Amino acid sequence: MSANPIDAFQTAVARAQSLGIDTTPAALATADGNSAPSARIVLLRGVDQRGFVFYTNYESRKARELAINPQASLCFYWPTLDEQIRIEGRVERVSGDESDAYFAGRPRGSQLGAWASSQSEVLDSRDTFERRFNEVEERFTGQAVPRPPFWGGYRIVPSRIEFWYGRESRLHDRTQYTRVGDGWKVEKLYP
After folding, report:
1. Which of 52, 80, 106, 181 is 20 to 30 A removed from 97 (C-alpha atoms)?
2. C-beta separation of 66 from 91 below 8 A
3. Sign of dihedral through CA atoms 73, 76, 82, 83?
4. How far apart are CA 124 and CA 157, in angstroms?
């Protein structure tokens, strides 16, 4: 294993992608002010030495929970490889420029959908949502769709990353990286 877990993650992703595995979905866990957890699947949209990036509506349930408790965990699981990678850390918003650049590269329908959706709010009917989408589509006819001010990215700045590799007889291989200052402490864990 690399001395740097971000490098190890990128190597694991490249290996999985070479086998045709979609490595973007991950379970994101957050907790509200009462420490009640919730989890959902998000798509990893960037990773570098600063951390792991995903995008969402800043008024969604996950965003409200992150505003109260800016700590989160991501869990990637690739069943065909029997591999799991867990990431834990504090969460920060990415810059407006980063969010703008990512949003500009999204399919137009996804851009319009971001404007039309009041993510996590109660919806009275599917017709209402489709009507809102059509209104947004008409509003931006013939022009680029700007990023909504209520939509953007978050970065999980990792404090702990664990790589788990399934092995026969439950002799799984676990390597844990814990941030220490500007570096990482690397330890093996019992399965």
Report:
1. 181
2. yes
3. negative
4. 37
- Distance of alpha carbon 52 from alpha carbon 150, whole angstroms: 20
Residues 6 or more apart whose Cβ sits within 8 Å of residue 56: 42, 62, 63, 119, 151, 152, 153, 154
The pLDDT of residue 1 is 75
170 is catalytic: yes
Catalytic residue among 93, 131, 170, 174: 170
Nearest to 52 by CA among 23, 15, 18, 20: 23
CB-CB neighbours of 150 under 10 Å: 16
Phi, psi of 170 (to 5 degrees): 60, 25
Entry pTM: 0.94
Contact present, 63 and 38 (Cβ < 8 Å): no
In angstroms, the CA 44 to CA 146 distance is 22
Domains defined along the chain, listed by start: 5-102+149-189 (2.30.110.10)
Tokens read off for 93: 């918003």
Beta strands in 58-150 (DSSP E): 71-78, 83-93
